What does this fold into?
Amino acid sequence: MRGAFYYLSLVLDVWSRKIVAWEVHDREDDALSSQVIVKTAQSLGIDLAGLVLHSDNGGPMRGATMVTTLERLGILPSFSRPSVSDDNPYSEALFRTLKYWPEYPSRPFEGIEEARRWVEAFVRWYNTVHRHSAIRYVTPAERHTGAERRELERALERTESVAHDLAEQIRERAVKSAEEARAALKKALGQDEPEGVPL
It folds into this structure.
């Protein structure tokens, strides 16, 4: 269908950078966006009172249905300032990653189900494969579940092992280089030593 647009509603946990909810719809609507928030609240099973939902100034986020839903759940709304493009850096960084993902589509989606499958694949990759620089190169899922420490400890063990191996290789090369330099200096001074006999 030519000229059709799909709208992605996405909820990002700022601390872990994990995408905790998303939906793709064929229209922008505050009722649909508020349903995403309700489903997110139910699926996370946490006390939402006092949580802050920061979003852009789009109609779905400022609509009466959304504001009422947030009030009912005890979530505090927060909005980007008008004409401030970097007021929501976490979201901006996420969408930049999305747009530069190697699997980003080169052609329009055939339909909404294809768009949903694509977003599902991206979210799976982003949450479980993508190592995020702002959270010490662990995945958002590892940070969200607390597996971050275990993964960082494994990375430290791998790093220490590689450092030990490199240090050993450097030491061996340095010893060999020093021996070769010593032999060359002795030869230059006419102090050749017989083969296999140390000086």
Summary: The chain has a mean pLDDT of 83. The chain has two domains: 7-137, 147-199. The radius of gyration is 28 Å. The beta strands are 7-12, 19-25, 52-55, 76-79.
